[in-house]
Specification:
ten-stranded antiparallel beta sheet, alpha+beta, five-stranded parallel beta sheet, about 375 residues, about 30% helix
Protein backbone atom coordinates (compact mmCIF):
# COMPACT_ATOMS: atom_id res chain seq x y z
CA UNK A 1 0.00 0.00 0.00
CA UNK A 2 1.14 3.56 -0.73
CA UNK A 3 2.10 5.25 2.53
CA UNK A 4 -0.55 7.99 2.45
CA UNK A 5 -3.37 5.77 1.17
CA UNK A 6 -5.19 3.34 3.43
CA UNK A 7 -7.91 1.00 2.21
CA UNK A 8 -10.29 -0.30 4.85
CA UNK A 9 -13.24 -2.70 4.66
CA UNK A 10 -16.32 -2.02 6.76
CA UNK A 11 -18.27 -5.26 6.90
CA UNK A 12 -20.59 -7.19 9.17
CA UNK A 13 -23.76 -9.20 9.40
CA UNK A 14 -27.22 -7.86 8.53
CA UNK A 15 -28.31 -4.70 10.39
CA UNK A 16 -24.88 -4.06 11.90
CA UNK A 17 -24.86 -0.26 11.48
CA UNK A 18 -22.50 0.05 8.51
CA UNK A 19 -24.53 2.79 6.80
CA UNK A 20 -24.47 5.06 9.85
CA UNK A 21 -20.82 4.25 10.52
CA UNK A 22 -19.85 5.26 6.96
CA UNK A 23 -21.46 8.69 7.41
CA UNK A 24 -19.56 9.24 10.68
CA UNK A 25 -16.28 8.06 9.14
CA UNK A 26 -16.61 10.57 6.28
CA UNK A 27 -17.43 13.42 8.67
CA UNK A 28 -14.74 12.61 11.23
CA UNK A 29 -11.74 11.99 8.99
CA UNK A 30 -12.62 14.74 6.49
CA UNK A 31 -12.50 17.16 9.41
CA UNK A 32 -8.99 15.89 10.23
CA UNK A 33 -7.75 16.74 6.72
CA UNK A 34 -8.11 13.35 5.01
CA UNK A 35 -9.68 12.78 1.61
CA UNK A 36 -12.25 10.03 2.16
CA UNK A 37 -13.51 7.87 -0.70
CA UNK A 38 -16.32 5.37 -0.05
CA UNK A 39 -16.98 2.41 -2.33
CA UNK A 40 -20.65 1.33 -2.29
CA UNK A 41 -21.86 -2.17 -1.51
CA UNK A 42 -21.63 -3.81 -4.94
CA UNK A 43 -24.12 -6.68 -4.32
CA UNK A 44 -26.75 -4.08 -3.40
CA UNK A 45 -26.13 -2.29 -6.71
CA UNK A 46 -26.67 -5.60 -8.51
CA UNK A 47 -29.84 -6.34 -6.52
CA UNK A 48 -31.25 -2.91 -7.30
CA UNK A 49 -30.46 -3.51 -10.97
CA UNK A 50 -32.51 -6.74 -10.99
CA UNK A 51 -30.09 -9.49 -9.91
CA UNK A 52 -31.75 -12.06 -7.63
CA UNK A 53 -29.08 -13.79 -5.54
CA UNK A 54 -31.69 -16.37 -4.42
CA UNK A 55 -32.38 -17.48 -7.98
CA UNK A 56 -32.60 -21.28 -8.50
CA UNK A 57 -30.94 -20.73 -11.90
CA UNK A 58 -27.38 -21.92 -11.14
CA UNK A 59 -25.92 -20.43 -14.32
CA UNK A 60 -27.42 -17.01 -13.61
CA UNK A 61 -26.23 -17.16 -9.98
CA UNK A 62 -22.70 -18.07 -11.08
CA UNK A 63 -22.46 -15.27 -13.63
CA UNK A 64 -23.99 -12.81 -11.18
CA UNK A 65 -21.48 -13.65 -8.46
CA UNK A 66 -18.57 -13.57 -10.90
CA UNK A 67 -19.69 -10.17 -12.21
CA UNK A 68 -20.10 -8.92 -8.61
CA UNK A 69 -16.50 -9.85 -7.82
CA UNK A 70 -15.19 -8.34 -11.07
CA UNK A 71 -16.98 -5.04 -10.43
CA UNK A 72 -15.83 -4.97 -6.79
CA UNK A 73 -12.22 -5.32 -7.92
CA UNK A 74 -12.65 -2.71 -10.68
CA UNK A 75 -14.23 -0.14 -8.32
CA UNK A 76 -11.43 -0.59 -5.78
CA UNK A 77 -8.67 -0.38 -8.38
CA UNK A 78 -10.11 2.77 -10.00
CA UNK A 79 -10.48 4.54 -6.67
CA UNK A 80 -6.94 3.53 -5.72
CA UNK A 81 -5.66 5.20 -8.90
CA UNK A 82 -7.69 8.32 -8.08
CA UNK A 83 -6.32 8.31 -4.53
CA UNK A 84 -2.77 8.25 -5.90
CA UNK A 85 -3.44 11.66 -7.48
CA UNK A 86 -4.69 13.26 -4.25
CA UNK A 87 -2.44 15.82 -2.60
CA UNK A 88 -3.51 14.87 0.94
CA UNK A 89 -3.59 11.62 2.91
CA UNK A 90 -6.45 9.46 1.66
CA UNK A 91 -8.70 6.81 3.15
CA UNK A 92 -10.70 4.44 0.93
CA UNK A 93 -13.55 2.81 2.86
CA UNK A 94 -15.21 -0.16 1.18
CA UNK A 95 -18.79 -1.00 2.14
CA UNK A 96 -17.94 -4.70 2.22
CA UNK A 97 -14.97 -6.18 0.38
CA UNK A 98 -14.15 -9.07 -1.91
CA UNK A 99 -14.25 -11.80 0.75
CA UNK A 100 -17.83 -10.92 1.69
CA UNK A 101 -18.84 -12.26 -1.71
CA UNK A 102 -17.38 -15.68 -0.85
CA UNK A 103 -19.68 -16.01 2.20
CA UNK A 104 -22.73 -16.34 -0.05
CA UNK A 105 -21.59 -19.35 -2.09
CA UNK A 106 -19.98 -22.75 -1.72
CA UNK A 107 -16.19 -22.93 -1.33
CA UNK A 108 -16.06 -24.91 -4.59
CA UNK A 109 -17.83 -22.16 -6.56
CA UNK A 110 -15.58 -19.50 -5.00
CA UNK A 111 -12.48 -21.46 -6.05
CA UNK A 112 -13.87 -21.84 -9.58
CA UNK A 113 -14.66 -18.12 -9.95
CA UNK A 114 -11.34 -16.90 -8.54
CA UNK A 115 -9.51 -19.49 -10.62
CA UNK A 116 -11.13 -18.17 -13.81
CA UNK A 117 -9.97 -14.68 -12.86
CA UNK A 118 -6.43 -15.88 -12.08
CA UNK A 119 -6.71 -14.95 -8.39
CA UNK A 120 -6.30 -16.70 -5.05
CA UNK A 121 -8.06 -16.26 -1.73
CA UNK A 122 -4.77 -15.27 -0.08
CA UNK A 123 -4.23 -12.47 -2.63
CA UNK A 124 -7.74 -11.14 -2.21
CA UNK A 125 -8.01 -11.42 1.57
CA UNK A 126 -4.52 -10.70 2.85
CA UNK A 127 -2.99 -8.09 0.57
CA UNK A 128 -5.72 -5.75 -0.76
CA UNK A 129 -6.72 -4.03 2.48
CA UNK A 130 -4.98 -2.39 5.41
CA UNK A 131 -7.76 -3.37 7.83
CA UNK A 132 -11.09 -5.18 8.01
CA UNK A 133 -13.61 -3.97 10.60
CA UNK A 134 -16.49 -6.36 11.20
CA UNK A 135 -19.55 -4.86 12.89
CA UNK A 136 -21.54 -7.55 14.71
CA UNK A 137 -25.15 -7.90 13.51
CA UNK A 138 -27.82 -6.48 15.81
CA UNK A 139 -29.37 -9.97 15.55
CA UNK A 140 -26.70 -11.14 18.02
CA UNK A 141 -27.11 -9.44 21.40
CA UNK A 142 -29.04 -6.34 20.26
CA UNK A 143 -32.16 -7.95 18.81
CA UNK A 144 -34.36 -5.01 19.82
CA UNK A 145 -32.52 -2.90 17.23
CA UNK A 146 -32.70 -5.44 14.40
CA UNK A 147 -34.75 -4.14 11.46
CA UNK A 148 -35.09 -4.74 7.73
CA UNK A 149 -36.41 -1.26 7.02
CA UNK A 150 -32.95 0.18 6.31
CA UNK A 151 -32.30 -2.22 3.44
CA UNK A 152 -35.16 -3.25 1.18
CA UNK A 153 -32.99 -5.93 -0.50
CA UNK A 154 -32.19 -7.74 2.78
CA UNK A 155 -33.21 -11.39 2.68
CA UNK A 156 -33.00 -12.02 6.47
CA UNK A 157 -36.43 -11.00 7.77
CA UNK A 158 -37.54 -9.70 11.17
CA UNK A 159 -38.58 -12.98 12.82
CA UNK A 160 -36.87 -15.78 14.75
CA UNK A 161 -35.76 -17.56 11.59
CA UNK A 162 -34.50 -14.27 10.13
CA UNK A 163 -32.50 -13.58 13.31
CA UNK A 164 -31.01 -17.08 13.16
CA UNK A 165 -30.02 -16.61 9.53
CA UNK A 166 -28.51 -13.20 10.33
CA UNK A 167 -26.38 -14.65 13.15
CA UNK A 168 -25.23 -17.48 10.90
CA UNK A 169 -24.30 -15.07 8.12
CA UNK A 170 -22.46 -12.88 10.64
CA UNK A 171 -20.21 -15.82 11.53
CA UNK A 172 -19.75 -16.83 7.88
CA UNK A 173 -18.47 -13.35 7.07
CA UNK A 174 -16.02 -13.40 10.00
CA UNK A 175 -14.78 -16.81 8.86
CA UNK A 176 -14.30 -15.51 5.31
CA UNK A 177 -12.02 -12.73 6.57
CA UNK A 178 -10.16 -14.82 9.16
CA UNK A 179 -6.51 -14.71 8.22
CA UNK A 180 -6.33 -10.99 7.55
CA UNK A 181 -3.65 -9.54 9.82
CA UNK A 182 -5.85 -6.66 10.98
CA UNK A 183 -9.34 -8.12 11.35
CA UNK A 184 -11.19 -6.42 14.20
CA UNK A 185 -14.66 -7.35 15.44
CA UNK A 186 -16.77 -4.41 16.66
CA UNK A 187 -19.22 -5.36 19.43
CA UNK A 188 -22.82 -4.35 19.83
CA UNK A 189 -23.53 -1.82 22.58
CA UNK A 190 -26.78 -0.61 24.12
CA UNK A 191 -25.57 2.87 23.20
CA UNK A 192 -24.94 2.73 19.43
CA UNK A 193 -22.56 5.72 19.60
CA UNK A 194 -20.07 3.48 21.42
CA UNK A 195 -20.05 1.11 18.46
CA UNK A 196 -19.42 4.04 16.10
CA UNK A 197 -16.64 5.41 18.33
CA UNK A 198 -14.89 2.03 18.26
CA UNK A 199 -14.96 2.14 14.44
CA UNK A 200 -13.40 5.62 14.47
CA UNK A 201 -10.78 4.45 16.98
CA UNK A 202 -9.79 1.41 14.89
CA UNK A 203 -9.44 3.50 11.73
CA UNK A 204 -7.37 6.06 13.67
CA UNK A 205 -5.10 3.22 14.74
CA UNK A 206 -4.61 2.16 11.10
CA UNK A 207 -3.79 5.75 10.17
CA UNK A 208 -1.06 5.84 12.82
CA UNK A 209 -2.77 8.39 15.06
CA UNK A 210 -1.95 8.27 18.81
CA UNK A 211 -4.53 6.38 20.86
CA UNK A 212 -5.57 6.67 24.51
CA UNK A 213 -4.25 3.80 26.61
CA UNK A 214 -7.17 1.54 27.47
CA UNK A 215 -7.16 -1.76 29.32
CA UNK A 216 -9.22 -4.56 27.82
CA UNK A 217 -10.79 -6.52 30.65
CA UNK A 218 -9.12 -9.87 31.32
CA UNK A 219 -10.08 -12.80 33.53
CA UNK A 220 -8.55 -16.10 34.57
CA UNK A 221 -11.31 -18.59 33.81
CA UNK A 222 -12.12 -22.26 33.91
CA UNK A 223 -14.01 -23.95 31.08
CA UNK A 224 -17.03 -25.72 32.64
CA UNK A 225 -19.19 -26.42 29.58
CA UNK A 226 -19.26 -26.83 25.84
CA UNK A 227 -18.06 -23.84 23.84
CA UNK A 228 -20.04 -22.50 20.87
CA UNK A 229 -18.66 -22.55 17.35
CA UNK A 230 -15.25 -20.86 17.58
CA UNK A 231 -12.39 -19.84 15.35
CA UNK A 232 -9.47 -21.92 16.60
CA UNK A 233 -5.93 -20.68 16.12
CA UNK A 234 -2.42 -21.33 17.36
CA UNK A 235 -0.30 -18.32 18.36
CA UNK A 236 3.48 -18.09 18.73
CA UNK A 237 4.67 -14.78 20.12
CA UNK A 238 8.30 -13.61 20.34
CA UNK A 239 9.52 -10.30 21.76
CA UNK A 240 12.45 -8.53 20.15
CA UNK A 241 15.16 -6.33 21.60
CA UNK A 242 13.81 -2.76 21.67
CA UNK A 243 14.61 0.70 23.03
CA UNK A 244 13.29 1.65 26.51
CA UNK A 245 9.58 2.44 26.57
CA UNK A 246 9.02 0.48 23.38
CA UNK A 247 7.64 -3.05 22.94
CA UNK A 248 8.30 -4.93 19.69
CA UNK A 249 6.57 -8.22 19.04
CA UNK A 250 6.55 -10.91 16.36
CA UNK A 251 3.40 -12.99 16.17
CA UNK A 252 2.71 -16.02 14.01
CA UNK A 253 -0.92 -17.10 13.97
CA UNK A 254 -1.95 -20.39 12.40
CA UNK A 255 -5.38 -21.89 11.68
CA UNK A 256 -6.46 -24.71 9.39
CA UNK A 257 -2.87 -25.16 8.19
CA UNK A 258 -2.47 -21.50 7.15
CA UNK A 259 -0.21 -18.95 8.81
CA UNK A 260 0.11 -15.17 8.99
CA UNK A 261 3.03 -13.21 10.50
CA UNK A 262 2.59 -9.78 12.08
CA UNK A 263 5.24 -7.35 13.37
CA UNK A 264 3.89 -4.99 16.06
CA UNK A 265 5.49 -1.99 17.75
CA UNK A 266 3.95 -0.28 20.80
CA UNK A 267 5.45 2.97 22.02
CA UNK A 268 4.16 5.05 24.91
CA UNK A 269 4.31 8.73 23.95
CA UNK A 270 2.76 10.12 27.16
CA UNK A 271 1.14 8.91 30.37
CA UNK A 272 -2.21 8.54 28.60
CA UNK A 273 -1.33 7.92 24.95
CA UNK A 274 0.38 5.20 22.97
CA UNK A 275 1.38 4.86 19.33
CA UNK A 276 0.95 1.36 17.93
CA UNK A 277 1.87 0.15 14.46
CA UNK A 278 1.61 -3.28 12.90
CA UNK A 279 2.40 -4.82 9.54
CA UNK A 280 2.12 -8.22 7.97
CA UNK A 281 5.50 -9.68 7.03
CA UNK A 282 6.78 -12.56 4.90
CA UNK A 283 8.11 -15.84 6.26
CA UNK A 284 11.64 -14.86 5.24
CA UNK A 285 11.50 -11.56 7.14
CA UNK A 286 9.87 -13.28 10.11
CA UNK A 287 12.69 -15.81 10.33
CA UNK A 288 15.29 -13.07 9.91
CA UNK A 289 13.79 -10.92 12.70
CA UNK A 290 13.79 -13.89 15.07
CA UNK A 291 17.56 -13.32 15.28
CA UNK A 292 16.74 -10.14 17.26
CA UNK A 293 14.76 -12.03 19.94
CA UNK A 294 15.01 -10.55 23.45
CA UNK A 295 17.42 -12.88 25.32
CA UNK A 296 15.62 -12.16 28.60
CA UNK A 297 12.24 -13.39 27.36
CA UNK A 298 10.92 -16.74 26.25
CA UNK A 299 8.59 -17.33 23.32
CA UNK A 300 4.92 -17.57 24.23
CA UNK A 301 2.89 -20.39 22.75
CA UNK A 302 -0.90 -20.46 23.24
CA UNK A 303 -4.09 -21.76 21.68
CA UNK A 304 -6.87 -19.24 21.02
CA UNK A 305 -10.61 -19.68 20.62
CA UNK A 306 -12.42 -16.59 19.30
CA UNK A 307 -16.20 -16.28 19.51
CA UNK A 308 -19.16 -13.92 19.82
CA UNK A 309 -21.51 -14.26 22.79
CA UNK A 310 -24.61 -12.06 23.03
CA UNK A 311 -23.07 -9.43 20.75
CA UNK A 312 -19.72 -9.28 22.59
CA UNK A 313 -16.47 -10.59 21.11
CA UNK A 314 -14.13 -12.71 23.23
CA UNK A 315 -10.74 -14.35 22.92
CA UNK A 316 -10.06 -17.38 25.10
CA UNK A 317 -6.34 -18.15 25.37
CA UNK A 318 -4.99 -21.42 26.77
CA UNK A 319 -1.26 -21.03 27.49
CA UNK A 320 1.14 -23.89 26.72
CA UNK A 321 4.56 -22.21 27.15
CA UNK A 322 6.36 -20.77 29.08
CA UNK A 323 3.44 -21.11 31.53
CA UNK A 324 0.77 -23.80 31.50
CA UNK A 325 -2.51 -24.40 33.34
CA UNK A 326 -3.43 -20.79 32.59
CA UNK A 327 -6.61 -19.89 30.69
CA UNK A 328 -7.34 -16.18 30.14
CA UNK A 329 -10.53 -14.68 28.74
CA UNK A 330 -10.10 -11.24 27.17
CA UNK A 331 -12.93 -8.95 26.17
CA UNK A 332 -12.65 -6.95 22.97
CA UNK A 333 -14.24 -3.51 22.81
CA UNK A 334 -16.52 -3.76 25.85
CA UNK A 335 -16.91 -0.17 27.07
CA UNK A 336 -15.66 0.66 30.57
CA UNK A 337 -19.19 1.40 31.83
CA UNK A 338 -20.71 -1.79 30.38
CA UNK A 339 -21.03 -5.17 32.03
CA UNK A 340 -19.33 -8.20 30.51
CA UNK A 341 -21.83 -10.83 29.34
CA UNK A 342 -19.97 -13.86 30.67
CA UNK A 343 -20.91 -17.08 28.87
CA UNK A 344 -22.34 -19.87 31.06
CA UNK A 345 -19.68 -22.33 29.86
CA UNK A 346 -16.93 -20.33 31.61
CA UNK A 347 -16.35 -19.80 35.33
CA UNK A 348 -14.47 -16.65 36.33
CA UNK A 349 -11.66 -17.45 38.75
CA UNK A 350 -10.07 -13.98 39.01
CA UNK A 351 -10.39 -10.53 37.45
CA UNK A 352 -6.84 -9.68 36.28
CA UNK A 353 -7.63 -6.49 34.37
CA UNK A 354 -4.61 -4.19 34.57
CA UNK A 355 -2.50 -6.75 36.49
CA UNK A 356 0.90 -6.31 34.85
CA UNK A 357 1.96 -9.76 36.07
CA UNK A 358 -0.35 -11.25 33.44
CA UNK A 359 0.73 -9.09 30.49
CA UNK A 360 2.18 -11.36 27.79
CA UNK A 361 5.30 -9.20 27.84
CA UNK A 362 5.85 -10.11 31.50
CA UNK A 363 4.71 -13.73 31.26
CA UNK A 364 7.54 -14.18 28.77
CA UNK A 365 10.23 -13.06 31.25
CA UNK A 366 12.82 -15.73 32.07
CA UNK A 367 13.39 -16.74 35.66
Amino acid sequence: MTKDIKKIVLTGGPCAGKTTALVKVIEHFSSLGYKVFTIPEIPTLFSQAGMNYLTPNKGLFYQGEKATLELQLAFEDKFMRMAEECNKPTVIVCDRGVMDISAYMSPEMWEQITGELGLTTAQLRDHRYDAVLHLVSAADGAEQFYTTSTNSTRYEQMNEEGLRQARLLDKKVINAWTGHSHLRVINNHEDFDKKINRVLKEISFVLGLPQPIEEERKYIVEVVGELPECINSEITQTYLVAEPGCEVRLRRRGWEGKYVNVHTTKKRISEKERLETERQISNNLYNSLLQQADPYRQTIHKMRKSFIWKGQYFELDTYLKPVSDLVILETKGVASDESVKFPPFLRVVEDITGHKKYYNYNLALKG
